[in-house]
């Protein structure tokens, strides 16, 4: 299936999806992982994170599950997991970025730039 | 430091309360929990770390709230269409007695105007004083009853029977203020003082807008009833205006009672039947308004033409049609907006 009309992803969305690739995470874990993955370049605030998660939920790229851990108040934490569609979108975006890099490298080597 | 964390968490809880209802319902608790986690972790970096978190949240908060509302507005437009077609489709006043009460304002006002025209019958300077006072009294008493009914219905927080009363009373109040100002202006005087007159007019207009907003909050069918009240006051008020000098057409004003009766029947149709009945009632009001304006035009036009003055008929037609439509249109926005903000 072609997902080109959904691309490119914003950096925040890309990192959120990438963060969920190994498995489900709760909100704060996503936030910290995005920061680590981006080498502290992308620092999401709570409002930005949940705004993005809401759109991803509506698009069906992630799903929201009841997590197994509880926080200090004893309330169960919700976890977010990548759906099959979300994984496919992430793959498509990665492919797009790879193509960009390949084209750039090709042109750069022709020009003796790299 | 714990006290600072608590205080900041409370402020953040207040900030999340400003998101749309549906957003709050799903994410508010989680967001507060994540914010507390962020604050707690930031303590390792000292006070600057803490304030760094606060700064980043404050910086992104307006855009995040705006985006949440923007997305909710898209959903709201869809709900508007659904509301128009399906929501409260079967709303009507169940009790016949209450429906009759809801239908009373036009016939009351109409009878008042007709009785006044029956009593006075001649220009004010040609009739004895007692006749003039009696005529004004019989016109004002039903108006006063409608004003009291509208006030009572507002205090009772908009019962189903009360929308037409509130609408008629509010617009009647505005027209009364306007007439008083104009009468005094003819003598080159303000009603109280120029500032006080402007304030009074502003308060009445604002009051009408608030009433419309409150009715719209409950949906287009309720707000439509309120705006029919607006058009009743303007329409019958215009018919009353043809009795004023130099026209003195008390014979035309006699038609106010039958006109009011037809308006009452249309109101009854509006509150007792389905949406088709409501649309028919609104169309009926537009037709009645047009007919009444054509009659008024035939009286005013020769006098206005002689003096090269513009006709008020077209602006009045726009005003009357606008008055019929403003409620339903406001209701189509108001009810879905209530869902976005309060979720009910």
Can you tag this structure with a few keywords?
heterodimer, A: 114 residues, alpha+beta, three-stranded antiparallel beta sheet, 16% strand, elongated, B: 344 residues, mainly alpha, 13 helices, 0% strand
Summed up:
The complex is a heterodimer of chains A (114) and B (344). Chain A has helices at residues 11-20, 27-37, 46-59, 84-110; strands at 25-26, 62-70, 76-82.
Characterise this structure.
The complex is a heterodimer of chains A (114) and B (344). Chain A is α+β, with helices and mostly antiparallel strands. In chain A, 54% of the residues lie in helices and 16% in strands. Chain A is built from four helices and three strands; from the N terminus they run αβααββα. A three-stranded antiparallel β-sheet of chain A has the order 1-3-2. The radius of gyration of chain A is 17 Å and the shape is elongated. With 344 residues, chain B is mainly alpha-helical. Chain B is built from 13 helices and no strands. Chain B has helices at residues 2-16, 21-42, 46-85, 96-102, 104-120, 129-155, 163-186, 194-216, 220-241, 250-253, 256-272, 275-306, 313-342. The two termini of chain B are 39 Å apart. The relative contact order of chain B is 0.11. Chains A and B meet through α2 and α3 of A and α2 and α3 of B.
Integer-rounded radius of gyration of chain A: 17 Å
Using only C-alpha atoms, the radius of gyration of chain B works out to 27 Å
- Measured as a percent range, the helix fraction of chain A is 40-55%
Q: What structural class should be given to the helix and strand makeup of chain A?
A: alpha+beta
Largest sheet of chain B: none
The overall pLDDT average of chain A reads 89
How many strands in all of chain B? 0
Report the oligomer: heterodimer
Largest sheet of chain A: 3 strands, antiparallel
Shape of chain A: elongated
The proportion of residues forming helix of chain B, as a percent range, comes to over 70%
Low-confidence stretches of chain B: none
């Amino acid at each position: 299936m072609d997902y080109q009309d959904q691309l490119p992803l914003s950096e925040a969305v890309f990192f959120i999806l990438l963060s969920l690739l190994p498995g489900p995470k709760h909100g704060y874990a996503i936030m910290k992982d995005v920061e680590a993955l981006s080498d502290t370049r992308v620092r999401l605030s709570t409002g930005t994170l949940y705004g993005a998660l809401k759109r991803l939920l509506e698009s069906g790229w992630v799903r929201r599950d009841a997590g197994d851990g509880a926080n200090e108040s004893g309330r169960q934490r919700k976890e977010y997991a990548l759906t099959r569609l979300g994984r496919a979108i992430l793959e498509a975006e990665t492919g797009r970025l790879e193509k960009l890099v390949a084209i750039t490298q090709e042109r750069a080597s022709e020009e003796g730039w790299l | 430091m714990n006290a600072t964390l608590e205080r900041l968490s409370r402020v953040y809880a207040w900030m999340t309360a400003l998101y749309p209802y549906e957003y709050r319902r799903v994410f508010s608790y989680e967001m507060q929990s994540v914010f507390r986690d962020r604050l707690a972790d930031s303590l390792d970096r000292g006070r600057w770390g803490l304030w760094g978190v606060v700064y980043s949240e404050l910086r992104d908060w307006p855009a995040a709230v705006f985006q949440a509302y923007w997305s909710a507005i898209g959903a709201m437009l869809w709900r508007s269409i659904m509301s128009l077609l399906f929501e409260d489709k079967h709303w009507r006043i169940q009790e016949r007695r209450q429906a009759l009460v809801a239908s009373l304002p036009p016939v009351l006002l109409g009878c008042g105007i007709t009785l006044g025209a029956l009593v006075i019958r001649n220009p004010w300077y040609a009739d004895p004083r007692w006749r003039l006072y009696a005529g004004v009294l019989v016109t004002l008493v039903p108006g006063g009853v409608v004003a009291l009914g509208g006030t009572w219905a507002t205090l009772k927080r908009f019962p189903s029977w009360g929308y037409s009363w509130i609408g008629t009373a509010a617009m009647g109040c505005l027209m009364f203020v306007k007439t008083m100002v104009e009468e005094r202006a003819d003598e080159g005087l303000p009603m109280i003082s120029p500032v006080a007159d402007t304030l009074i007019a502003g308060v009445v207009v604002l009051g009408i807008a608030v009433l419309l907003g409150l009715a719209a909050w409950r949906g287009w069918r309720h707000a439509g009833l309120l705006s029919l009240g607006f058009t009743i006051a303007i329409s019958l008020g215009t018919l009353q205006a043809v009795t004023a000098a130099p026209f003195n057409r008390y014979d035309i004003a006699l038609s106010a009672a039958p006109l009011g009766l037809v308006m009452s029947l249309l109101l009854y149709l509006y509150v007792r039947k389905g949406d088709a009945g409501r649309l028919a009632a609104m169309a009926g009001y537009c037709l009645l308004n047009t007919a009444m304006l054509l009659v008024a035009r035939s009286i005013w036009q020769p006098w206005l033409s002689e003096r090269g003055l513009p006709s008020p008929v077209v602006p009045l037609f726009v005003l009357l049609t606008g008055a019929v439509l403003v409620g339903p249109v406001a209701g189509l926005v108001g009810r879905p907006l209530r869902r976005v903000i309060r979720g009910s």
